[in-house]
Every structure is written in C-alpha cells, then in structure tokens.
Amino acid sequence: MNIEETIKLFENLKIGSDNKYEIKIYKNFIAILSELKNRKLTEEQKQSIEKKLELLELNFNAENGKKYYRRKLEAFKKYLKDELSLISKGYNTAIGMSLGMCFGVALGSTIFGLSMGTSTGLVIGMIIGLAVGKSMDTQAEKEGRVLNI
Q1: pTM of the model
Q2: 3-state SS track over 112-130
Q3: Same-domain status, 80 and 142
Q4: 72 with 97, same domain?
Q5: Average pLDDT over residues 86-99
Q6: Mean pLDDT across 73-81
Q7: How does the average pLDDT of the chain come out, rounded?
Q8: Which of 35, 66, 84 is the last residue of a domain?
Q9: CA–CA separation, 22 vs 70, rounded Å?
Q10: Which of 61, 94, 101, 141 holds its CA 20 to 30 A away from the CA of 126?
C-alpha cells in the first residue's frame, strides 16, 4: 500500500465516522502521510514506508476502530522515529520537560529538603529540561528531521 492509497483510505474512514476521537486519529494519520508525501525521500525510504504501511494492516475492518487505529498510529510514529529519525514538532521539548521535572524533584528533595525542595526542584528541572529539549528540537529542525504536524 503506497502513501497516496493510505491517505485515501483514511479520508474515506474519516467521512464514514461519527466519533470525534476516531476522526482525530484519521486526521493525524493523514497529516503525517501528507507530510511524508511532500518530503523529498529516497526511493529506499519510500519503499520502507510502504512496506511498513503494509505490515500495519490498515485495511482491516476492526470492530473497535478507535483503539485499533490509535495503536497503529503510535506504531507508525515509533517506526518513523526509530528508522527514519523523523519526529513531530516539539517532541524533544516535551521529553526534556518531563525528564527535567522528574530529576528536578529528586534532586530538589535531596538538596533543599522535602518542604521547599520538591517545588523548587520541579521548577528548576522543568526550566533546564525545556532549554535542553528546545535546543534539540532546533537542531533536529536544522537537519530536516521534523514533521510539521
């Protein structure tokens, strides 16, 4: 299944659905696939993407479409990140902030004590994580690895 056929499949699924959450998943798939279609990919990358789309079995009529296609969307995003190093906009910022808050709470509690350290560490960790994540996102954008979705 090529990218164009998959976009048409999700357009049809979107038209036939009443569920707002399902439609959101279909729109997300369409946005990613449209971005990939407009990107200058090598023939090897295109074939790899088409092979992955075949393996995802998107033509399958699942009883619970929302759950089924959500899992397939996450698998496809993971594939794009792992195999092609393509990430969505703000990906590293979100990861950096999450990790910064976790480490900030741990370090703040140990350094400043439990009463004041937790909140102080949370804020400091979030700021540091935001800065690191933002710089990584900027670097990825310069390298052309960001999907604008």
Answers
A1: 0.82
A2: HCHHHHHHHHHHHHHHHHH
A3: no
A4: no
A5: 94
A6: 95
A7: 91
A8: 84
A9: 8
A10: 141
Among residues 136, 32, 25, the alpha carbon closest in space to that of 84 is found at 32
pLDDT of residue 138: 95
137 and 68 co-located in one domain = no
Residue 41 DSSP label = -
Percent helix, strand and coil across the chain, each to the nearest 5: 80, 5, 20
Given a cut of 80, whether residue 63 has pLDDT beyond it is no
**Phi and psi at residue 89, to the nearest 5°:** -60, 130
Given pLDDT bands bounded at 50, 70 and 90, which one contains residue 87?
A: very high
Answer yes or no: are the C-beta atoms of 3 and 53 closer than 8 Å: yes
- Give the E-state strand segments of the chain in sequence order: 87-88, 146-147
- Predicted confidence (pLDDT) at residue 11 exceeds the cutoff of 80: yes
- Alpha carbon distance 27, 37 (integer Å): 15
> Which residues sit opposite 9 in a β-bridge?
none
CA-atom Rg of the chain in angstroms: 19
CA-based nearest residue to 78, from 32, 46, 47: 32
Q: What does the pLDDT look like over 93-134, one tens digit per residue?
A: 999 999 999 999 988 888 888 778 888 999 999 999 999 999
Pairing assessment for the beta strands 87-88 and 146-147 based on DSSP bridges: parallel
